[in-house]
Amino acid sequence: MSHKEDNIQEEKRIFEELLQVLRRLRAPDGCPWDREQTPQTIKKYMIEEAYELYEAVDSDDPQEVKEELGDLFFLLLFLADLYRERGDFSLSDSLSAIKEKMIRRHPHIFGNIKVSGSEDVVANWQAIKGQEQEKKGKKRSSLGNLPLALPALQRAFRLGERASRVGFDWKGPEEVVEKLKEEMSELESAMNKRDSEAIEDELGDVLFTLANLARKLDLNPEEVLKKALNKFVKRFEKMEEKITGQGRQMSELDIDELEAYWQEVK
């Protein structure tokens, strides 16, 4: 038996043991907390674990990724088992469906379609996905069906990305900058009129345009903002430490003094 086959057998064994642990927890004499869970109660934990895994990947710490990946994987198994108990579907049903979907959406690997690069792969994927949606009786759109629960900045980025696939896009970042100037002017006009509804509308346009500017610069706006926030927190805490270290309180300082400290820690 090859080393690869050994790994597969080991993964199967651990997977079965994990399922046994899960079902022991859900047994009539199992853990009260685990037995109380439903799909609606467990979903919030999945989101938390997904973000923890996201942060672990960002940290580039394999041990942290390993742990968080396991946590999320267990919750996904938990959710699948809840639906199995209700008789809706089994884990095998779900895994079979994704296996068939991956084969169907990769005709250049499992079929006779030829592609010249990743752009063709994405185009084929979207076309096949659209056909699947039509068969299900769902409305077909080039924008797809991005989850409404996505962070708004990430959803803005992905919507702009999808619109670009059908040619609805700016040629380059310079054109987006011009659009941003236009949107800023409209926001300023709304502010001068003290029109709260228009301000909200125009500010949304500004943020959406900024997300598209990031995309045209080959940056993910969610990642860019996250880094900026982390930088702000570190500098703010450094400034705070410096001020309190001198026996002063931030609330006692005026904005000019605070700005001086801010520039110092930068």
Element pattern in H and E: HHHHHHHHHHHH
CATH architectural group of the largest domain: Orthogonal Bundle
From the 3D structure, determine the CATH topology of the largest domain. Helix Hairpins
Strand count, sense and closure of the main sheet?
none
State the end-to-end distance: 59 Å
- What's the pLDDT, averaged over the residues? 93
Q: What's the alpha carbon Rg, rounded to whole Å? A: 25 Å
Enumerate how many helices there are, as a single number. 12
Low-confidence stretches: none
CATH first level of the largest domain: Mainly Alpha
Any idea what the CATH superfamily of the largest domain is called?
Answer: MazG-like
Count of discrete domains: 3
Number of strands: 0
Short description:
This protein has 266 residues and is an all-alpha fold. 75% of the residues lie in helices and 0% in strands.
Task: Write out key terms for the chains shown.
single chain; Helix Hairpins; 12 helices
Describe the structure.
The chain is built from twelve helices and no strands. It has three domains: 92 residues, Helix Hairpins (Orthogonal Bundle), CATH 1.10.287; 72 residues, Helix Hairpins; 44 residues, no CATH class. With 266 residues, the chain is an all-alpha fold. α8 crosses α10. The model has no long low-confidence stretch (mean pLDDT 93).
